[in-house]
Write a structure and sequence with these properties.
This protein has about 120 residues and is α/β, with parallel strands linked by helices. The protein has a single domain, classed as Ribosomal protein L13 (Ribosomal Protein L13p, Chain: A), CATH 3.90.1180. It is built from six helices and five strands. The strands form two sheets. Strands 1-2-5 form a three-stranded parallel sheet. Strands 3-4 form a two-stranded antiparallel sheet. Strand 3 and strand 4 form a beta hairpin. The radius of gyration is 16 Å and the shape is globular. The protein starts with a helix and ends with a strand.
Length: about 120
């Protein structure tokens, strides 16, 4: 159950028909609070951004096979790769979250800011 304060601290962003990069950069700007007049880079924002219609993002067909996500376990032969198409078919929210993650500042605040990204 959401309280009135939670509803006031939410920003809705509909990404239907928008390209992945432009929608992710808009979400990253809103997450940081750069649109507010009280923006200060050293203060973590408390509002959340709710993303709607993530499955309807516009992604160019060539990207589905060429863009790869990699992760490494630290063990020999522990490098795992997956394509954008595979990840998008399983969970389009994860593709969007990774795009926003890469657009946030690379500092200690990044993991706290990404927690304010919600999906509808």
């Amino acid at each position: 159950m959401s309280t009135k304060q939670d509803i006031l601290n939410q920003i809705l962003l509909d990404v239907k028909g928008k390209s992945l990069g432009r929608a992710a950069s808009a979400a990253a700007i809103l997450l940081r609070g750069k649109g507010k007049s009280s923006f200060e880079p050293h203060i973590r924002p408390t509002h959340s951004v709710v993303i709607q219609n993530v499955g309807d993002l516009k992604i160019f067909p060539g990207k589905f096979n060429t863009k790869t996500y990699t992760r490494y376990s630290g063990y020999p032969s522990g490098l795992r790769t997956s394509t954008l198409g595979d990840v998008f078919m399983k969970n389009p929210k994860e593709v969007f979250r990774r795009a926003v993650w890469g657009m946030l500042p690379k500092n200690r605040s990044r993991k706290f800011i990404i927690n304010n990204l919600k999906f509808d």
